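Consider the record:
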Amino acid sequence: MTESTAPVERGTSRTEGHSQTLHFTISLPHPLEKVWAAVATPAGLSGWLAAADVLEPRLGGAVTLRWLNNGGTHTGHVTAWDGERVAEYTLDGVHGRMRFHLEPTAPDATTLRFTNEFDGDDGPRLDCLAGWHDHFEHLVAALAGHPTDERAWAAWTPDRWRRLRDGYVAAEG
């Protein structure tokens, strides 16, 4: 994250039985089209989240995301697609349903409302809160012109993720 980049606000979560729901709301000083490209195209996703080895941009389309920080690959389907407004991917494993809902708030500003739903206990919930927070910091940097390339991902360590996770644990008391 660069000094001129605003920090990502802490995400929230809700547990119902064995189901976890995470939420992040991020105000971005970028037009809707630019944010959409970052969350709904292979080129955009690779700058902050994962390589989209497969992404069929339509409801029911196939998706395969390969995380560039750890090499984990997850497959699934596009479960919602409303061009330039909603991109939702439901993947196997802990990633579950990931919904990116964009709202233009000004000609050059967009609010990203993110929801992640998955089955798991408290450990994966805290892991995912920290993981998404870390990735959203990469998104903010990518939108500011500093995408995370494969060389940077290769040098990635879990240190920042651990500090974020510890912060989420501490915030819950």
Notes: Helices lie at 32-40, 42-45, 122-143, 150-154, 159-171.
